[in-house]
Amino acid sequence: MYTFLKKKLQNLTNDKKFSEILTGSSWAFSGRVVATGLGIVSSIIIARVYGAEAMGIVAVINSFMLMATIFTVLGTSTSVLRMIPEHLAKYSPTSAFKLYRKTQYLVIGASLVTGTLFFLCANLIADKIFNKPHLAFYLAIASVFVVFKSLMLLNTQAVRGLRLIRVFALMQFLPQGFMLILLILLGLLWSARDVPVYAMLGSFALTGIMGWVIMEYAFKQRIEPQDTVEQMPARTILSISLPMLVTATINLVLGQTGVIMLGMFRSEAEVGYYAIAVKLATLTSFILSAINSMAAPKFSELFHSGKIDELFYVAKKSSKLIFWTTTPILIGFAFLGKPLLGIAFGRQFEVAYTALVLMALGQFVHSISGATGMFMNMTGRQKEFRNIILVSAVINILLNVLLVPSYGISGAAIAGMISLSFWNITTLRYIKLKYGRTTGYFPMLAWL
Hints:
By secondary structure, this protein is mainly α. 84% of the residues lie in helices and 0% in strands.
């Protein structure tokens, strides 16, 4: 088995057309691994030095920032992956820079308005939404940093549009690296329990500013006085970005529906079992994210250069890489999931095995489908993809309502598996009808 997989990966490595994506994926994956490791170290320090309450406050503020910035970024963290390579391929680096600058101003404007509103409503949010009035101070402080977190998210993706592979890997772990450094430095100078919150917010600010500096420098190195410039109105940028915002929001809802429904209808213990099953089943998302992070700008470049044959060649190769790197992990969960749950988390967590297998099956469909969502977003089909995801979300919610009260975590897993499979298969069929071929790969299915 090992020799077979090694041979498949070597074939991909030796492909000159695909080597850029493979190399980039390796860097992106490494960045995610380092970021995860640094995050774990920071969590251990917070838990041991500042206690569970401080850990909880950090988690709440981080969730607040996540929910706030998904709207303030306006979907541009995905759309820049399409628009920057498009302008580089069709026009010039100057044109791409002006597009980036306009996008940046849109994000800053939305962030300042949203941050101001959250600052004024901090007491209301803390009291009515979180039912924790003492969080008002932290929420007010966090509101000031919304603009920095938004810029961090935008610039982390914008460097991908310029195909700065190593810089993207760096940007992935900078927030965790800055947080760990600030956590240690502030902890040595100050004994307040607020240190973890300030360290996290400071890391957002430093990463956002550094990303801005990196993008400025990278563009200045490429710009020429004679460059052709194509002006893109803010209205056009938003028409491309907002469907991607809706898609990102729905994906967030899809990921949380099972947990919310279990919290409503079942015990807290079942929510815990399900959360662990989700974490294990979605481990392959590290690989998917790493490959997609490098494939996305390449898709945009090839599509807007009119190189459709090469576009599908690269898309199919990406799918092969996803398949051969994720399938062994998912098969391992199917056969070894129960003992793994028992050994790693305790015998009581073995009840999550069925849910783990069901969600692994959904992830398998996701894997053989390839980068369907990113393909749609990068080739101007973001509105169609938004509609598919919206239908998938409705299916997910309805199935959760029907199944969770009676079947608990297995019902939530079935709902997740069906909705994930639905949007992947539907997107594949759409691409097939549109282009006469698909992005998927599975050795035994000819239609893929």
